[in-house]
Every structure is written in structure tokens, then in C-alpha cells.
Amino acid sequence: MRTLCILFAALMLDAHAAETPIPRLARKDGRYALMEMPIYWEQFEPRAGQFDTTAIDTILTQARAHRVRLVLLWFGTWKNGSQHYMPEWMKLDPERYSRAIDKNGRRVDSPSPFAEASLRADIDAFTAFMRHLKAADPQRTVLMVQVENEPGTWGTLRDYSPAAEKLFHLPAPAGVLKAMDKPAGAADWGEAFGSEAEVCFHAWSVARYIQQIAAAGKAVYPLPLYANAALRDPIKPGAPGTYESGGPTDNVIPIYKAAAPAIDIVSPDI
Predict the structure, then answer these.
(1) Structural fold of domain 32-268
(2) Cα-based angle 105, 110, 112 (whole degrees, multiple of 5)
């Protein structure tokens, strides 16, 4: 009898999911308003490997009560270029969950896109978040999820850690060169991109990091995913270093398309 009840419940869930198809991106005339709500990694995983879904469940309940749909923002490794919404247990271990290094060898207030421990932790947390969202939201209250928030770095063009330096002095990936309409054969990023080399390298570094998180989450629950950028002025952008580098700003969107195919949309943070 227990087995039959479980089977019946599973069939009912499948039927409901069929009646409420997963949100998707579609082109259509008209305007749309999206309600956005942040999910803070430090609240979701207050202790390593222990996930607290209270905030997510409360948001879903309140959204349904007010009959609104949501876009959820994952404040994970990056929030406005910093790591301030990482869990406290990560902030207290900066050697393992490292920050970016500037040209003078000093840590800056921004996470490193080459911190493997941070990446693995973010993948695990975001996957747990998406898994819970799939189970808790058969109504499809959530339409889309933002992966990270204004990713990138202030105060330094890029990470100058040993891992970053090694890759910067190797040839850029063929996909990036093609996306940015650069010829193959350059010895390293500097030769390929000139004065924009560090900005392009950092965009690729961050996009590659985000791609791994987004792909893992989408494998669990394939909602549309997007990344946003702290804007640079597209008319008078200024020199590299006058705007946050690493995010999907207008000059490096092709790099994000090449390096982060699991991201469906890039958007300005306005």
C-alpha cells in the first residue's frame, strides 16, 4: 500500500509539472515586469554542507499569496564585485577561499576566479539551491535565476595570483579569439588583445567560473539563468580600470557567450 501511495504521488507530481511547464525564454511584443528577490549564500549555508531553506520557502509562500512571479538572485561568490555574501566559515579561512591579488601582491576586496575551493563550494550550494527550488516550486513561481551579482573586480584590472599569471601568459582559448574576432596564433593574451588584454582575460576568468556553477545548477533544474554587469559607459567607456572588470560589460559580451554557454541572458545592473 505504501508503494502504491508513493507511486500515485509521483504520478500526480508529473501530471502537475506537465500542466505547469518549466519557464522558458520567448520573444514576444510587449513589456514585462519581473519581481526580483535575493537569496544570500551565507543564509542558505550557515555551516558547511548544511543548507537552510527557510528564506527560500518564505519567499515562495509570500509570492504565491500576492500572486506574483519571481526572479531569484543568487548572491554567491560575487555580490557587487566583493565576496561579502559568502558564508562566514569561508570568510574566516581566506587562505583556502582566496581573494584576488593585485599587482603589488596584496589581497583586494574581491574573490579570486581561480580559487578552486570557493568554486567547488559555490557549485555545491547553488546545486542544492536549484534542487530544492525544483522540489518546492511545482507551481513555477520562479521564472528565472541570476547566477552571482555584478561579478568582477574593483581596484585591480584582474587577479595576479600565480594561477592567473600562468594562464595570462599562455595563448587565449580559440573560442575566445573567434568570439572577439582575433586571429589565431598569438603567444599570449597580451599579444592577442593589446591594451584590452587584462580586461578580456579577467572576463574570461570570471565567465569560466560562473559557467561551471550555472551548468551544475541547470543540470538539476533547467530554469533560464542570467548574469548581470556593473555598467561601464558604452559611449565614453574610459580606460580599463575606470569600471568594474570581469563582468559581462558591453565590450566583452562575446567572451561570456563563448565561455559561459549555460547563461541564457546577460543584463545591465540598473
Answers:
(1) TIM Barrel (3.20.20)
(2) 70
